[in-house]
Amino acid sequence: MEHPASQEGDSPVIVSLSEAAMHMYTAAIDSLPFPEDKKFHKRADVVLSGMRKLRAALTEAASRNRSTAAVIVALSDVRRRYDDLMTHAAAAPGSSLGQQLYAARIHARLSAEEVANGAGLRADLLDDLEFGETPTEHEAARVKDLIAALGGVPGTEHDQHHEPEHHEPEHHEPEHHESEHHEPAESHVNGWDESLAADNTG
């Protein structure tokens, strides 16, 4: 009668602990301040650190022969919530290069090993950056180039398009409106057209 439970090993305990931890982390995530708040990264980093430990424990449990579907589901949930928070943190002001690179490669559907090999970076650098390590000046330059090559940090696209693009008045040809008195005056209140209209009234 005890045989099915022994096949599962420690899986039920691991899953229960994971669920309890995720309840705590979910509450912490929901109570995070706005990304612009100076306390955002400090609080988010605490949650991310704890979730990394939980992710590592579940990854180890999932690799065992007597793992269960429940462990796999729990690992999937932790990874998904971790990725969401890392992406959110990466798009916030003051984010680290590690957060930015993680978000960019996850969005690009690439593993850390694939990115490191393709960019000629040491294999453990991406993990170190994810855990909060500070890169050297040379490594930072390579990482920034890599982030740009992967399409940038998800969620920050709007920051790259601030320049106004509406300059249509420059394309008007004023000489075609000299014989028009009142009807075009309403559309000629911008830029040099306004001075042109003043000349015609003299």
Describe this structure in words.
The chain has helices spanning 3-8, 11-30, 40-62, 69-90, 97-107, 112-119, 125-130, 137-149, 191-201. The protein has two domains: 7-160, no CATH class; 168-201, no CATH class. It has 202 residues and is an all-alpha fold. The protein is 59% helix and 0% strand.
Number of strands: 0
Radius of gyration: 28 Å
SSE pattern, N- to C-terminal: HHHHHHHHH
Distance between the termini: 105 Å
Number of domains: 2
What is the general shape? globular
| Helix vs. strand class | mainly alpha
- Low-pLDDT stretches: 1-7, 161-172, 176-202
How much is the average pLDDT?
80
Helix content: 55-70%
In quaternary terms, these chains amount to: single chain
Query: What is the strand content?
Result: under 5%
Number of helices: 9
Which sheet architecture does the biggest sheet show? none
